[in-house]
Amino acid sequence: MPSQTFQTHSEEETIALGRDLAPQLHGVVLLIGNLGAGKTTMTKGIVEGLGVALADAVSSPTFTLVHQYGGDHPVYHVDLYRLDEERQVESLGLNDLFATDSLVLLEWAERFPALLPAQRTEIRIRALADDSREIVLTCQD
Ligand code: ADP
Ligand code: MG
Predict the structure, then answer these.
(1) In terms of pLDDT, which residue wins out, 73 or 43?
(2) How many CB atoms lie within 10 A of CB 18?
(3) DSSP class of residue 30?
(4) With bands split at pLDDT 50, 70 and 90, how would you rate the model's confidence at 2?
(5) Which of 9, 10, 13, 38 is 20 to 30 A distant from 86 in Cα terms?
(6) Which residues line ligand 1 (CB under 6 A)?
(7) For all residues of the chain together, what is the average pLDDT?
(8) pTM greater than 0.85 (yes/no)
């Protein structure tokens, strides 16, 4: 399984990395890491890199659950942190999103493995000392 490992040292560097990685991302992408690791920050860069919104316009969908950026080729950003049960997640209509060819970026989705497609990309973010982060990108396809 091919994977790439990166290190960033600030919020700005993680946004820049997201911008750089954006063109190689497609389909379902899991953003995995603790609270405050930088999942939403990475999303800002990815969304900006695809040209569908500026980084500053991207906010956490913690309460709204799903954000859509762009119209013609939308990018979806989902946060399942507040959900506890599979049926709650199912009622969001994620399968409809997965069935499109849109990029779907998901935070906390690894908590619901049965609802996820096997073919997906994972971005794991781990806080190192201070503002440093280790970011591992793995494509499963
Ligand atoms: P998550 O979505 O994983 O809970 P956020 O992206 O919302 O995390 O928040 C990450 C926090 O960590 C922000 O306050 C950001 O400024 C800070 N931060 C510090 N260093 C980094 C880094 N290298 N990459 C990303 N965020 C960082
Ligand atoms: Mg977040």
Answers:
(1) 43
(2) 28
(3) E
(4) confident
(5) 38
(6) 8-11, 13-14, 33, 35-41, 60, 107, 131, 133
(7) 96
(8) yes
